[in-house]
Amino acid sequence: MRDARDRRLPRIAGPSGLVIFGVTGDLSRKKLMPAVYDLANRGLLPPGFSLVGFARRDWEDEDFAQVVRDAVRDHARTPFREEVWQQLAQGMRFVPGDFDDDTAFRQLRDAVQELDSARGTGGNFAFYLSVPPKFFPKVVQQLKKHGLTDAPEGAWRRAVIEKPFGHDLASARELNAIVHEVFDPEQVFRIDHYLGKETVQNILALRFANQMYEPLWNRSYVDHVQITMAEDIGIGGRAGYYDGIGSARDVIQNHLLQLMALTAMEEPAAFDAASLLAEKLKVLRAVKLPEDLGAHTVRGQYAPGWQGGAKVPGYLQEEGIAPTSRTDTYAALRLEVDNRRWAGVPFYLRTGKRLGRRVTEIAVVFQRAPHSPFDSTATEELGENAIVIRVQPDEGMTVRFGSKVPGTSMEIRDVSMDFAYGESFTESSPEAYERLILDVLLGDANLFPRHLEVEESWRILDPIEEYWDRNGRPAQYASGTWGPGEADEMLARDGRSWRRP
Ligand code: BG6
């Protein structure tokens, strides 16, 4: 018999519903609606699960259901099954209106009550704010005003918010204050979709479920850590969001600093949200900025170039971008974690759009062996040992080390040992949003950054952004290359070089 607490039992959400604000947006169509369907298809949603869309469109419930159906057809991960769709579609409602519109919010309240009695959602609703942050104050105030934040006895109400969580520390604090006026911190789920990726969750499994890595995971053995998030795409149609924000605010403040925190943190006392927060916060608080920001940070902007055999425009030629824009599309930083485990070990973070290829990885690069009994010619071609966590797209891990080349002489060269998800497991990985939406419905906050982490991350980034603002323009790099030469020089000055993944 299986124990009721068996972790292998599927985690199925209890009676509940999801209200999406901004339901006509890109994120909703490409990620949220397909994720809801995939969860339903995997049997992880309750039978009466309900989905309410709210937007400024003249739609009936059926029009909304059609939009969801198209989104699911185009973007879901799992196969389309009519019976799953039908069941889900019965719980779909649409509320047309503006965020200022009291009538619309009253209608939303009625819809929620109707679903409670018709579908048995039990008063449990999550409100997903897939809208620009400037609308957060209005939406949360309206939810409060119309009694939507008050759950009936024994039920829950939760808010889900998407980044950007502000554009600096001051605005993040302001935003957090607004949200916390209405929702308690435990009711707020901030999405950093990187934390929903299997490979990112695996960082903790790798480090803390095994014995063989942790003894080496410190300043005595590690030379430096490189965290790369490279994209081959440009900004696409997102000029309105991206310009003035740039790569560091877009992904370093959240995704990359979270990856760094997971890589550097101590073992949590338990695998729960409070313990994870405590350890990640300690890392972020210990992050030290370089004294010379000019020498240890680089920002760049993509120029025209070639990608996948096609000629692509530079950032300044993209639609909606002013020819004088100074927005960074590439950023590289050198940070240190000032604690006993990591003192003196640089963490190099870099990200960019229109780089050589799409890849996200964490490379822990080890010091060279302190002594070699071999002739120096034997190890001429030997690099540094490394453990590389391949976050995407080729999910897995590589361990790089030296090995003797077969033959009569002693010649040692780098080889690698690979773990690939696709080869070791038959299950395919769920999409990050599937995992995160399910966790919201289950009330499991492990994979959601709390406001203190968000604020601490801005504390790290703010001085860098201010320095960049005062100092000229980003360096140009040709699309399809690995970023500006300045970033290579930054590492070369430390006697190191970037990996070419
Ligand atoms: C988002 C950024 O958070 O992450 C985008 O806003 C970026 O600019 C995207 O393209 C990348 O996500 P993924 O999961 O494709 O690596």
Automatic annotation (TrEMBL):
PROSITE patterns: G6P_DEHYDROGENASE
Annotated NCBIfam families: PRK12853.1-3 (NF009492), zwf (TIGR00871)
A Pfam family assignment: G6PD_N
Gene (name only): zwf
Bias (Basic and acidic residues): 490-501
One GO location term (cellular component): cytosol
Gene3D superfamilies in alphabetical order: Dihydrodipicolinate Reductase, domain 2 (3.30.360.10), NAD(P)-binding Rossmann-like Domain (3.40.50.720)
Lineage, opening ranks: Bacteria, Bacillati, Actinomycetota, Actinomycetes, Kitasatosporales
GO biological process, one term: pentose-phosphate shunt, oxidative branch
Region (Disordered): 478-501
Organism this protein belongs to: Streptomyces phyllanthi
Protein name: Glucose-6-phosphate 1-dehydrogenase
Annotated residues for binding of NADP(+): 56, 98-99, 163
Catalytic activity, reaction form: D-glucose 6-phosphate + NADP(+) = 6-phospho-D-glucono-1,5-lactone + NADPH + H(+)
This protein's record includes keyword NADP: yes
